Amino acid sequence: MTHDGIFDEVNDAKVDMAHLYDQADPRAYCRELKKFDYKIPSVAKPVFKKLISCMRRYRKGTICLLDLGCSYGVNAALLKHDLSITDLYDHWGQQRLVSATPTEIMDYDQRFFGHLSKASDIEVIGLDVADKAVSFAEEVGLLDDALSINLENETLTDAAKAKLRTVDLVMSTGCVGYITETSFDKLLSAFRGQKPWIANFVLRVFPFDVIEKTLKQYGYVTEKLDGKTFVQRKCGTNEERSQMLGKLRQRRIEPMEKEIDGYLLAEFYISRPKSDALMDPLSGLLTAREMQDA
Ligand SMILES: C[S@@+](CC[C@H](N)C(=O)[O-])C[C@H]1O[C@@H](n2cnc3c(N)ncnc32)[C@H](O)[C@@H]1O
Questions:
Q1: Distance from Cα 274 to the centre of ligand 1, integer Å
Q2: Relative to the CA of 85, which ligand 1 atom is closest?
Q3: What is the CATH number of domain 4-284?
Q4: When comparing pLDDT for 40 and 290, which is higher?
Q5: Is residue 194 within 8 Å of 222, Cβ to Cβ?
Q6: N or C: which end of the chain has fewer CB within 10 A?
Q7: Apex 172 CA angle, 76 and 288, nearest 5
């Protein structure tokens, strides 16, 4: 069984934002996502930060993150700098940047991010099918390395595999659903001996069981954070809201109050080698502090 059919059906029912994903700079992306109160990167930030601090028990030195569906480097910006998604919306939405060219935005951002204080103990590799978005993020210094690839239908080159060999933590927000078990299978076979933790925020409308089974074949145990949901964004239209409620009910998931009110909710899954999961069960890993909606 694969996820393809279910994922495609849900994606067809969601508001289509594909035209925003691969522009020369993030202004249009931010302008539109702000309207939907897209906030999952900010909500996820404390969870990723806690995982990074836990990993220090296992890994010395710089922790290397791989951000799946990294887009313009949003998660990297939040984790490296003291920023929230609202700060990025304000930054890329500044009136004085409206008529700037993408090259001017890039120059401006190299200086802007270059002057901010920065976590020196993490590096971020970004992976996204959106070539222009990852190039932008790499150029302005948000990403330390970038892979512009669609693992759903392409294969990793040897050079790309070599880049992945330093990864300690794979993370994603808003990406599962666009990527399926196919992408995870290719990534896991590229990792070879190393066993990074894999942390995904996944919309409740998307099943995670097939990805979980795929990861299990590589010795991974997946835990879902029970009893906690994270706001990803508001639905764009009433039509999207009712379609999403319908998709949840089709999967026999009773919509929550916030979903009925028009929000899309994500859940958190962490997949780790069995020994790591046994030593640090998810139930003891996160506190209420990391689980607050931003
Ligand atoms: C909703 S955006 C999320 C971006 C970012 N993670 C965030 O939360 O701000 C989804 C991202 O997934 C990317 N994407 C879509 N299909 C993909 C694929 N097959 N492989 C990698 N990335 C993909 C898009 O280009 C886009 O950047």
A1: 28
A2: 9
A3: 3.40.50.150
A4: 40
A5: no
A6: N
A7: 90
* Residue 83 token pair: 């920023």
> Which one of 3, 20, 129, 264 would you pick to mutate in the ligand 1 pocket, going by the greatest count of ligand atoms within 8 A of its CB?
129
Q: Which residue has the tokens 């002057």?
A: 115
Q: Band of the pLDDT at 16, cuts 50, 70, 90? A: confident
Q: Mean of the per-residue pLDDT values for the chain? A: 94
Residue 110 Cα to ligand 1 middle (Å): 23
Place of tokens 């209420």: 288
* Amino acid identity at 188: L
Name the DSSP class of 290: G
Cα 6 from Cα 247, distance rounded (Å): 9
Tell me the residue type at 236. Answer: G
Q: Quick check: 122 and 166 in contact, CB under 8 A?
A: no
pTM (predicted TM-score): 0.96
Q: How is the chain split into domains, by residue range?
A: 4-284
- Cα 218 to Cα 201: distance, rounded to the nearest angstrom: 20
Residue appearing with tokens 């290397």:
64
Structural tokens at position 131: 């070539």
**Phi and psi at residue 58, in whole multiples of 5°?**
-100, -30
Type of residue numbered 253? I
Nearest alpha carbon to residue 202 among 52, 47, 16: 47
CA Rg value for the chain: 18
Q: Are strands 122-128 and 145-148 parallel, antiparallel or unpaired?
A: parallel
